[in-house]
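Justification of resources, computational component.

The compute hours requested in this renewal are based largely on the per-chain cost of generating structure records like the one below. Each record pairs the submitted sequence with a full structure-token output. That output is archived, and it is also reused by downstream analysis tasks.
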Amino acid sequence: MILEKHIKDGFTYLNPAYENKIIGEGVVLDVNSLYPSVLYDRLLPYGEGIFFEGEYKEDNIFPLYIQSLTCSFELKPNKIPTIQLKAKDYKWEFMPNEYVTSSKGLIINLVLSNVDLKLFFENYNVYDLKFLNGWKFKGMKGLFTGYIDKWIGEKIKAKKEGNKRNL
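The structure output for this chain reads:
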């Protein structure tokens, strides 16, 4: 199903220029509570989506979308790869945990959210682009503010009481 193919999670990347090299002390950047902060004040999809053919067209009522497309692509100079292609879809051409720098001249089917699509166009040169279809959704801020406020309050209370079990 198209909607399942776009689901992504965290991002971890090692620049190949530093692979297997000792460079001294490194830095780990881990944003604490990023998911709650996004759930708290970002535009999130809700309700039933509406299927569309071709390229998504700007829609103030349905501003969020998932786009299915085909294309070939290569990473722009000094940009970070953001696309992973699963082996089940592309047999032996790509490692499923590898961020791809080139489609190797193949026409690839991608299913990307509007956020990931913007990132894709910023980081890759795209060729033979064909927009297939997608789903668009209404968006709302504050869907989870009550839930997050409640549980952040519980966490703060537990910390003040020295209750490590509820942290």
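The chain has five helices and four strands. The helical segments are 2-5, 34-41, 87-90, 114-123, 145-161.
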